[in-house]
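quick q for whoever's on today - can somebody do inverse folding on this one?? i tried earlier but teh output was garbage lol. tokens:
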């Protein structure tokens, strides 16, 4: 029953937070505030429900060292997506026209933070951790990565390839970050850094979602094999990786 209670708790906070942020998406400062509130509540609820159902210290969300771990993870995520954009720019598929919307970036900061925290708590904190306990690391990595990719299929303009790309490049990578550190702070940071860089900084499509313009006024166009089309660069990055390898 512990997995049921933990999933219900995290999903409830995620749903409430998503509804709140969506309702004020045209108010960037309110989006930031609600996103921050959702992240704090999600962490507190996760710590509470895990401690109550497993009767142990919640070491995977130990506040000690949280800030540097989040910082490292965020930097990794931003740099990784920056490399994707660099590849697009050098191929003539991405062009910056000037400054976009700093306030839009503020709102996306809150939205992406809430999404990164709640998704990592659910997929790596609850599902991966418990499946690994029973079936081992490799099976848990494969199963939860596929589930993470499948969870993006309802997104606008989603494709099976796009879901597979997210399963490989995000689900597998984020689970590996948790295995390497046994802390959720690093995968949360990587997840946030990637998504915020994609939408909040470079103003590209994030997993098919039509978000507000970010910091840069930019255009992504051209060969969908490279750009990912309407779903965004996440779909294309796995194609490119497979070709390069």
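ok took a stab at it. sequence:
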């Amino acid at each position: 029953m512990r997995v049921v209670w933990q999933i219900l708790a995290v999903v409830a906070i995620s749903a409430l937070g998503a509804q709140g942020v969506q309702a004020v998406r045209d108010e960037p400062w309110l989006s930031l505030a609600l996103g921050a509130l959702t992240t704090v509540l999600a962490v507190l609820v996760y710590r509470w429900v895990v401690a109550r159902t497993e009767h142990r210290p919640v070491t995977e969300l130990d506040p000690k060292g949280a800030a540097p771990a989040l910082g490292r993870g965020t930097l990794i995520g931003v740099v990784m997506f920056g490399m994707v954009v660099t590849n697009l720019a050098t191929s003539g598929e991405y062009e910056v026209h000037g400054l976009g919307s700093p306030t839009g970036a503020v709102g996306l900061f809150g939205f992406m933070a809430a999404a990164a925290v709640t998704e990592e708590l659910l997929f790596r904190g609850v599902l991966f951790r418990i499946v690994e306990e029973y079936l081992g690391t490799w099976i848990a990595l494969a199963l939860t990565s596929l589930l993470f990719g499948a969870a993006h299929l309802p997104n606008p303009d989603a494709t099976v390839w796009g879901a597979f790309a997210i399963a490989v490049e995000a689900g597998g990578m984020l689970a590996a970050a948790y295995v390497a550190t046994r802390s959720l702070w690093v995968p949360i940071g990587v997840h946030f850094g990637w998504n915020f860089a994609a939408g909040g900084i470079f103003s590209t499509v994030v997993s098919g979602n039509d978000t507000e313009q970010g910091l840069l006024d930019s255009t992504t166009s051209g060969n969908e094999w490279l750009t990912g089309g309407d779903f965004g660069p996440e779909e294309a990055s796995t194609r490119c990786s497979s070709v390069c390898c």
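fwiw Residues 239-245 have pLDDT under 50 and may be disordered. also The two ends are 43 Å apart (CA to CA). so keep that in mind when u check it
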